[in-house]
Design brief:
Radius of gyration: 22 Å
Structural class: alpha/beta
Strand content: 5-15%
Shape: elongated
Number of strands: 4
Strand order of the largest sheet: 1-2-4-3
Amino acid sequence: DNIEEYVEKILDAYLGQGVISQVTSFRQGFSTVFDISHLMMFSSSEIETLICGEQRQLSLQTLRQYSKADHGYTSNSSPIQMLFEIVDDMSASEQKQFVMFVTGSPRLPLGGLSQLRPPLTIVKKSVDFGHVPDEYLPSVMTCTNYIKLPEYSSKEVLKQRLYVAISDGQGSFHLS
């Protein structure tokens, strides 16, 4: 009979009176850095972008312009070009997972890939004696935005191994 009253009280506890002291403290602290009244000029989506970064698509041109090849690869290396083509063909959701895989964040900073510090860097992943690159998954160093990419035999192998690494690597931390 009193389900509506119950729901109202739960909502108030989670979104109203239950968090009022935390919200007040946040506003006071934030106001010491930035006058909150100035936020009125922004829409909620603009504030989200300023705080959380951008959800831009990664294009072939952007990847070529703002990524760096190093330690065994050049910008003209076949694995680099194949990687860029694969990422360019990804859906927005897949690109978000790729960004999360590489950087540890689901979004790029404000300004996109050009503002990523340190820049996205793709390096050649070495393989152990007696093994072939196709046996390995790409790995990353999220603190430095490094992708360690084996020199795969084909674009199809690279794509398959990349997707496995992205999906299996979500939410995990391994030393490589």
